[in-house]
Write a structure and sequence with these properties.
Blueprint lengths: L9 E7 L6 H17 L8 E6 L6 H11 L3 E6 L5 H12 L5 E4 L10 H10 L4 E6 L7 H16 L8 E8 H7 L9 H8 L3 E6 L13 H15 L2 H30 L6 H34 L6 E4 L9
Parallel strand pairs: 1-2, 1-4, 2-3, 5-7
Antiparallel strand pairs: 3-8, 4-6, 5-6
Helix pairs in contact: 9-10
Length: about 325
C-alpha cells in the first residue's frame, strides 16, 4: 500500500497516426476520464494527456495543437517522420517519465475500455508498478483474427518470451519502471515483451474491447505479421536453436540415407529413381533456405542494433523543450 497523502501525477500517452477522424470522437472521452479521476482525488491536478503525432499525413497534428491551446491538460509532441506505433509510444513514454509519477499508454481509436484506467490507478496505489490491461475475451473478433492472435501469444510463450496473454499496449507503468527501462537501448522494439523484463511488482485488469469508433485500422495483417516476427526475434534466440536442431536432424537422416544407398549398391538392388532424388534435393534445399532466412533475420536485426540510430526524433512540441532524440 502506497502513501496516498499526495495523488500521483498521471500522463495518458496516446500515439496517433492519421487519426483526424477518430480524435474528435475519442479525445473528449479521454479528457472526461482524466477529469473524473482528478475529481475523485485519484490523480493530481497536474495530470495530462500526451498525444504523440507519428508523422501523420492528415490534420492530426493540427488537431493536437488546437487541443493543447484550448486545454492546459493536453500536451503534444510530433515525430520528424513516421516511425511506427512502438517507436511513437516509446517517444511519448520517454517524454513523460521525468514529468509524472505514472503513465497509461492507450491507442487513440477508443477500442480499449477507457474507464479501466480508474482500476489501473487504484492497483498502482495498492503497490503495483506495472498494471497490464488484458482482454477478457475475443468474442467480437473474426475467427481468423482470434486464431492468429492467440496463436501468436502461444508461439511467443513457446519461444521463451515473457509476455502477458491477450495484452497489447494498454498498460500503466510507473516513472520508476520507465527510468529503469530507459537503459534498454533496443532499436527493434516490442514493448509488450520488453516491459515485463524490467521486473517490479505487476498486476492485471480485465476488460472487453470495443469496435473502433471512427476511421480505419492502421494495423492490417501484414503489419501484425511484421510485429510478430519482431517480437519473436527481439525476445528469443530459440528459432536459432530450432534451426540447429532441424539441420542436425536432416544431417542424421541424410547420413542414414547414404549408408542405406551404399548397402543397396553392394547388394545390387538399386533402381533408378529420378522422382525420389528430386524430392530429397528439394526437401533439403527448402530446409536450407528456411534456415538461412531465420539466420538472416537475426543478422539483419543485429545490423540495425549495431548502428544504434535514434529510435525517434521529436521535431515539434506544443510546449517546447530541448532533448529531441531517443
Amino acid at each position: 500500500m502506497r502513501n496516498t497523502m499526495h495523488s500521483p501525477c498521471l500522463y495518458i500517452v496516446i500515439p496517433c497516426y492519421n487519426e483526424e477522424e477518430v480524435l474528435p470522437v475519442t479525445l473528449p472521452m479521454f479528457k472526461k476520464q482524466l477529469a473524473d479521476m482528478q475529481a475523485d482525488g485519484l490523480i493530481s491536478e497536474k495530470s495530462k494527456i500526451l498525444l504523440v503525432n507519428d508523422g501523420s499525413k492528415d490534420k492530426t497534428w493540427d488537431l493536437i495543437r488546437t487541443a493543447a491551446k484550448e486545454n492546459s491538460n493536453v500536451d503534444g509532441i510530433s515525430l520528424s517522420r513516421n516511425r511506427g506505433h512502438q517507436n511513437a509510444l516509446l517517444a511519448g513514454l520517454m517524454e513523460a517519465k521525468d514529468k509524472c509519477d505514472i503513465t497509461i499508454s492507450i491507442d487513440a481509436d477508443g477500442q480499449d475500455d477507457i474507464s479501466v484506467m480508474t482500476d489501473m490507478v487504484k492497483s498502482y496505489l495498492n503497490g503495483a508498478e506495472v498494471v497490464y490491461g488484458v482482454r477478457s475475451s475475443r468474442k467480437k473478433d473474426t475467427f481468423f483474427k482470434r486464431f492468429t492472435a492467440e496463436s501468436f501469444y502461444k508461439l511467443l510463450s513457446a519461444m521463451g518470451a515473457e509476455i502477458v496473454f491477450n495484452h497489447a499496449d494498454y498498460r500503466l507503468v510507473s516513472s520508476r519502471v520507465l527510468k529503469e527501462f530507459s537503459s534498454f537501448k533496443e532499436v527493434n522494439l516490442f514493448l509488450r515483451g520488453l516491459i515485463p523484463l524490467v521486473g517490479f511488482n505487476s498486476s492485471s485488469v480485465f476488460y472487453e474491447r470495443h469496435e473502433r469508433l471512427a476511421g480505419k485500422s492502421h494495423y492490417p495483417f501484414t503489419k501484425m505479421l511484421s510485429l510478430a516476427i519482431d517480437g519473436i526475434t527481439s525476445l528469443s534466440t530459440k528459432p536459432l536453436r530450432l534451426v540447429f536442431i532441424i539441420g542436425l536432424t536432416v544431417s542424421i537422416l541424410s547420413f542414414i540415407g547414404i549408408i542405406w544407398a551404399i548397402i543397396m549398391v553392394i547388394l545390387g538392388t538399386t533402381v533408378a529413381g529420378w522422382a525420389s532424388t528430386v524430392c530429397v534435393v528439394c526437401f533439403i534445399g527448402g530446409i536450407q533456405m528456411v534456415c538461412l532466412g531465420v539466420i538472416g533475420e537475426y543478422v539483419g536485426k543485429t545490423y540495425l542494433e549495431v548502428k544504434a540510430r535514434p529510435r525517434f526524433i521529436i521535431s515539434e512540441r506544443t510546449k517546447d523543450n530541448s532533448n529531441n532524440l531517443g
